[in-house]
Design a protein that fits this description.
CATH architecture of the largest domain: 3-Layer(bba) Sandwich
CATH class of the largest domain: Alpha Beta
Radius of gyration: 22 Å
Structural class: alpha+beta
Number of strands: 17
CATH superfamily of the largest domain: FAD/NAD(P)-binding domain
Strand order of the largest sheet: 6-2-1-7-17-16
Low-confidence stretches: 213-220
Largest sheet: 6 strands, mixed
Number of domains: 2
Distance between the termini: 22 Å
Helix content: 25-40%
Number of helices: 12
Length: 435
């Protein structure tokens, strides 16, 4: 007996690991390095394409709660992330190369996991299967999935540029985290005064964008959380100052005052040799990125390790198709996991892979599926993608708003978040004890 897992991204890797933990053989199919998408560069599994941040670390937050729940399931990705974390203030960020390599080596070393380097162009029917090919599913398989599901949705996701640390002009920048949380080495802050900001904004709005040939360029569907910075800028002069360039919680030591606007840079690796422009996902042409972002004083001589890019993303009409176990309603031996199910974010994708893998294994063992309580973050995400009633289903990341309300109304925001987390972890432990 074996189970197929298609795709060795975050969801697929976690699914394969959870299946193998149940003592079932796994055939893990991955087309890299034979074939890569335009957004993939590494030969390793579990490649982080956009940011290297896995969001907030504290358990009293939606993202932190999700990660803690995953730890309690023995998540491979959380084990790897905790081992290769880099400074990021209150967030959990990782050295992306070490992270991917660690996950790859763990999977290749597992005696029950067979790695098959091959592009899958059709949906396998020889065994229970988990499809976790992600937002960049190859065209041939995407066509088969679309034919099976009767509907597919496409939109674009965007990645931020990465610059070398040595090319950042620190005479025009300072290190600090907002409100002095998480240590003063988490971010490099690149301040702009009012005149600098307005000049930058004007240039950004008018900058030339890279062409997109396979979608309606005038009406792309993009995750709001990954909206290209030039599109945000086009919404108004102050949009960026209340978004990725907000200066709140920061004080420029050169002036003693809060800057008019700030670009934050977050470290990409343990050695702190590379930094990404936080919130600066973009679809500008590469020369335009160098020109326009060079108007930020600290980045006037920046050297780019990677320019920002935009790539295709695909997700299913999951409420119509999937159950809370991530299995097809009409085909319970076929599971989907990852961003294609409508979860948004790295660890959200991994959590869906975790749950899909566990349920695929339970299906193979003839046991009932694991449906997590709606007051856990993992369960709430599964409930959202399978039960959303909106006519226009859109991806969702971890947030406290998808959890059931607390019995007691708590006005303080931090106390309320802590109460959500405490309830979720208690509920999860009760569920795990029943298994």
């Amino acid at each position: 007996m074996y189970i197929n897992v298609i795709g060795a991204g975050l969801a697929g890797c976690e699914a394969a690991w959870q299946i193998a933990k149940k003592g079932i053989k796994v055939r893990l199919y991955e087309m890299k390095p034979v074939k890569k998408t335009p957004a993939h560069k590494s030969d390793y599994f579990c490649e982080l394409i956009c940011s290297n941040s896995l969001k907030a670390a504290r358990v009293e937050s939606a993202a932190g709660l999700l990660k803690e729940e995953m730890r309690r399931f023995g998540s491979l990705l959380m084990e790897a992330a905790d081992c290769c974390a880099v400074p990021a203030g209150g967030a959990l960020a990782v050295d992306r190369d070490v992270f991917s390599r660690t996950v790859t080596e763990k999977l290749k070393a597992h005696p029950l996991i067979e790695i098959i380097t091959e592009e899958i162009t059709d949906i396998p029917r020889d065994a229970i299967t988990v499809i976790a090919t992600g937002p960049l599913t190859s065209d041939a398989l995407a066509d088969k999935i679309s034919a099976l599901c009767g509907k597919g949705l496409h939109f674009f996701d965007a990645a931020a540029p990465i610059v070398t640390a040595e090319s950042i002009d620190m005479s025009c920048a300072f290190t600090a985290s907002r409100y002095d949380k998480g240590g003063d080495d988490a971010y490099i802050n690149c301040p702009l005064n009012k005149e600098e900001y307005e000049s930058f904004h004007a240039a950004l709005v008018c900058a030339e964008r890279a062409p997109r040939h396979d979608v309606d360029v005038m009406n792309p569907k993009v995750y709001e959380g990954c909206m290209p910075v030039e599109i945000l800028a086009g919404r108004g002069i102050d949009t960026l100052r209340f978004g990725p360039m907000k200066p709140v919680g920061l004080k420029d030591p050169r002036t003693g005052h809060r800057p008019w606007a700030v670009v934050q840079l977050r470290t990409e690796n343990s050695d702190k040799t590379m930094y990404n422009l936080v919130g600066f996902q973009t679809n500008l042409r590469f020369p335009e990125q160098k020109r326009v972002f060079g108007m930020i004083p600290a980045l006037k001589n920046a050297e780019y390790v990677r320019y920002g890019v935009m790539h295709r993303n695909t997700f299913l009409d999951s409420p119509r198709l999937l159950g809370a176990d991530y299995a097809m309603r009409d085909d319970p031996e076929l599971f989907f996991a990852g961003q294609m199910t409508g979860v948004e974010g790295y660890m959200e994708s991994a959590s869906s892979g975790m749950l899909a893998g566990i349920n695929a294994a339970l299906r193979a063992l003839g046991q009932p599926p694991l449906i997590l309580p709606a007051d856990t973050m993992t369960g709430a995400l599964a409930g959202y993608i399978s039960g959303c009633t909106s006519k226009d289903f859109q991806p969702m990341g971890a947030n406290l708003g998808i959890l059931p309300p607390l019995e007691e109304h708590i006005r303080d925001k931090k106390e309320r978040a802590a109460a959500y987390a405490e309830r979720a972890l208690r509920s999860l432990e009760n569920k795990l004890q029943m298994l």
